[in-house]
Amino acid sequence: MNKPNYRKMKSPYSSWIAIVFATIFVSFSWPAEAQSHENFLQCLSLHSNGSSSISKLTYTQRNDAYTSILESSIQNLRFSTNATSKPLVIVTPSHASHIQATIRCSKQHGLQIRTRSGGHDVEGLSYVSQVPFVVVDLVNLRSVDVDVENSSAWVEAGATIGELQYRIAQKSRTLGFPTATCHTVGVGGYFSGGGHGPLSRKYGLAADNIIDARLIDANGEILDRKSMGEDLFWAIRGGGGGSFGIVLDWKIKLVPVPSTVTVFTLTKNSEQNATKLIHQWQLVAPNLPEDLFILLIISRANPGEGKGSIQATFTALFLGRVDKLVSLMAERFPELGVTKQDCTEMSWIQSVVYLAQFPGQNPEILLDRNASSKSYFKVKSDYVKQPIPEFVFKGMERWFEQEEGRNASINLVPYGGRMGEIPETETPFPHRAGNLYNVMYVTGEVEEIQDIRKYINWIRRVYGYMAPYVSKSPREAYINYRDLDIGVNEEDKTSYEEASVWGFKYFKKNFEKLVKVKSLVDPGNFFKHEQSIPSI
Ligand SMILES: Cc1cc2nc3c(=O)[nH]c(=O)nc-3n(C[C@H](O)[C@H](O)[C@H](O)COP(=O)(O)OP(=O)(O)OC[C@H]3O[C@@H](n4cnc5c(N)ncnc54)[C@H](O)[C@@H]3O)c2cc1C
Ligand SMILES: *[C@@H]1O[C@H](CO)[C@@H](O)[C@H](O)[C@H]1NC(C)=O
Ligand SMILES: *[C@@H]1O[C@H](CO)[C@@H](O)[C@H](O)[C@H]1NC(C)=O
Ligand SMILES: *[C@@H]1O[C@H](CO)[C@@H](O)[C@H](O)[C@H]1NC(C)=O
Ligand SMILES: *[C@@H]1O[C@H](CO)[C@@H](O)[C@H](O)[C@H]1NC(C)=O
Ligand SMILES: *[C@@H]1O[C@H](CO)[C@@H](O)[C@H](O)[C@H]1NC(C)=O
Ligand SMILES: *[C@@H]1O[C@H](CO)[C@@H](O)[C@H](O)[C@H]1NC(C)=O
């Protein structure tokens, strides 16, 4: 596959580097690069502290394990092809001092760092760069230390959401944390971008429940909330990963959950009034009591299931018992026709497993980092502030009828509740009061690499179709559904004006403060990627 064109490098210097760099991987024949990479390894071993040697945790293309480690957490196969640029070195630290050494040595030898926790970055930014780079993969830093008495926990950045929920559940049936549904997402990236999910209507984002953190900055210093100061602590809770340093661990406030919750999943096709129900959902879901979350997924109808090409899947999590849920649904959303038979009561942790799409399985599945399937895909996002007219959803039928719509989905995550109460400036994440729901467009799983361009064009056309009905000026987007279509940094020097194009979509006016913080804490712009906060 060719490099995606949005990664195009504008300065002649950087395209030169990119070409030379691509050559090294094939031939190892570029002496200066080979030299800096040798020097880097030597530097690491010098910084290594005798009791735990970093060399055993360091992989180059000469190691047999290099490829399997690199590929281990890549979710989007678009960034795992022969043409994808690969890191010179992968470091898998088991101690903070290894990260400090990696930062200092990378700086000394002109290498960029990409930090990876769960590897779910939808544009691959945690493991792909167009300049010579090192991946710091936090897979060995994933302990979770739960303090039930104080309803808090320290979680290392390399842990997944599934590991976090599992460890909490081992200690308590009535404590949880607001996370995503996909359990293999890493807390390193997810918390850094805010993190919405089924508990957000009740407790806000994951980032709203972080009470301390340890960050290693561009000088290799370990900072906690007190020593980093409130502005930097603000920035790392929603300003997006990879801009301010490497988060080592987070201290989080756990939230109460009932020991028994109730779930249902109902799918309606066109003959069952799918578009009418989708339209109605917009009026209902963001205004429900905070204990009830109803996710809506629009996708192509199962073949043979009546006329019309789309279906609407409603998946609910209710923090309470079944009888209350059924009566609440009858009162607030009678059109959906939910009955007691549609619902299942279960423990909190079983609901995490259910929403992760492994209903009924043993919670141990949450510890399996390989459980989600890998494919080629592209994601885009929107925010909706006014209910969209029904004909727009009706019009989606023709999109899903196209070949590219076969595995695609449009996922609607309701906001409201607690999300609307938290001020827009409280964290960098600005999509609070006034937002009915978030939209995530996914091409769906494409199995063949040669098809992907077609699917990307399709999702861009759908995004164009939706433009009149979603937020405007700016057309807001969610940083965790990263989309390089909305703008990328220049490799050499990004101006505030250039970056503010994508910056205001993700952060609105909070972008200004993020740039101020970045310019203070990382004036040399050491931590950078295609959409990192620029240092001005
Ligand atoms: C299948 C799938 C399902 C998803 N579901 C949801 C969902 O339900 N809700 C939701 O909000 N999001 C969801 N996301 C998006 C997800 O939250 C983001 O992609 C998130 O950034 C992934 O975090 P990660 O640690 O897995 O990713 P990574 O790729 O490891 O990192 C993402 C970004 O953060 C940086 N980063 C990672 N670790 C650190 C660290 N320790 N310190 C500093 N920077 C770091 C990386 O360099 C990169 O820029 C989903 C994504 C996928 C692929
Ligand atoms: C060296 O590593 C060990 C174990 O990884 C750690 O406990 C110790 O604090 C480290 N020492 C320094 C000076 O970083
Ligand atoms: C996941 O895959 C990695 C290699 O990619 C392997 O080392 C690990 O054992 C696997 N884990 C599980 C639970 O299968
Ligand atoms: C990728 O590279 C491998 C090894 O060099 C080769 O066997 C394979 O055919 C290549 N794949 C593609 C799609 O070019
Ligand atoms: C709970 O927090 C308090 C205050 O921070 C602390 O003194 C106490 O030791 C903590 N309890 C436990 C069990 O760690
Ligand atoms: C669809 O909606 C109409 C009008 O509201 C209603 O009469 C009909 O019963 C609904 N169909 C189904 C299958 O629910
Ligand atoms: C994608 O769609 C095709 C054709 O409808 C189907 O065969 C394939 O299984 C789907 N893939 C996934 C992962 O659903």
Automatic annotation (TrEMBL):
<dbReference type="InterPro" id="IPR012951">
    <property type="entry name" value="BBE"/>
</dbReference>
<keyword id="KW-0732">Signal</keyword>
<comment type="similarity">
    <text>Belongs to the oxygen-dependent FAD-linked oxidoreductase family.</text>
</comment>
<keyword id="KW-0560">Oxidoreductase</keyword>
<keyword id="KW-0285">Flavoprotein</keyword>
<dbReference type="InterPro" id="IPR036318">
    <property type="entry name" value="FAD-bd_PCMH-like_sf"/>
</dbReference>
<dbReference type="InterPro" id="IPR016166">
    <property type="entry name" value="FAD-bd_PCMH"/>
</dbReference>
<keyword id="KW-0325">Glycoprotein</keyword>
<keyword id="KW-0274">FAD</keyword>
<dbReference type="Pfam" id="PF08031">
    <property type="entry name" value="BBE"/>
</dbReference>
<keyword id="KW-0547">Nucleotide-binding</keyword>
<dbReference type="InterPro" id="IPR016169">
    <property type="entry name" value="FAD-bd_PCMH_sub2"/>
</dbReference>
<dbReference type="InterPro" id="IPR016167">
    <property type="entry name" value="FAD-bd_PCMH_sub1"/>
</dbReference>
<dbReference type="Pfam" id="PF01565">
    <property type="entry name" value="FAD_binding_4"/>
</dbReference>
<dbReference type="InterPro" id="IPR006094">
    <property type="entry name" value="Oxid_FAD_bind_N"/>
</dbReference>
<feature type="domain" description="FAD-binding PCMH-type">
    <location>
        <begin position="83"/>
        <end position="257"/>
    </location>
</feature>
<protein>
    <recommendedName>
        <fullName>FAD-binding PCMH-type domain-containing protein</fullName>
    </recommendedName>
</protein>
